[in-house]
Amino acid sequence: MEQPIRVAEFAQFFTTSARTTRRPDRTRLEVVVDPGAEAMARELAGRESSCCSFFTFDFTSTDKDVVMGIGVPAADTDVLDAFAARADTAIGDHR
């Protein structure tokens, strides 16, 4: 039951707090978010990691933004593709 809720929470987060995405390689997605949203990003990432342990999350902060890095094993790139598509759709919807 938690997964549909988290999908909706990520969609809302991407709509309100994400600026853009980057895909440096097929196993990694980077979501650039507003610095004020870092705590929420970390909280969502923690809950997602506890449910779906194949996801890895890391964060890099600058004075202008926060990059939430999301990685998966090569066997799970289809899941990351879907995650990236949801992020891009949500970001595009609020531009």
List keywords for this structure.
95 residues, alpha+beta, Gyrase A, domain 2, 3 helices
Helical proportion?
A: 40-55%
Point out poorly predicted stretches: none
Record field, number of beta strands: 4
First-residue to last-residue Cα separation:
31 Å
Number of domains: 1
The computed structural class is alpha+beta
Q: What does it look like?
A:
By secondary structure, the protein is of the alpha+beta class. It has a single domain, classed as 2-Layer Sandwich (Gyrase A, domain 2), CATH 3.30.1360.40. 49% of the residues lie in helices and 27% in strands. The chain has 3 helices and 4 strands, in the order αββαββα. It has a 4-stranded antiparallel sheet with strand order 1-2-4-3. β1 and β2 form a beta hairpin. α1 runs antiparallel to α2 and α1 crosses α3. The longest helix has 17 residues, at 77-93. The model has no long low-confidence stretch (mean pLDDT 89).
Question: What can be said about this structure in brief?
Answer:
It contains three helices and four strands.
Q: Topology of this protein?
A:
Elements: H1 2-17, E1 18-25, E2 28-33, H2 38-51, E3 56-61, E4 66-71, H3 77-93
Antiparallel strand pairs: 1-2, 2-4, 3-4
Helix pairs in contact: 1-2, 1-3
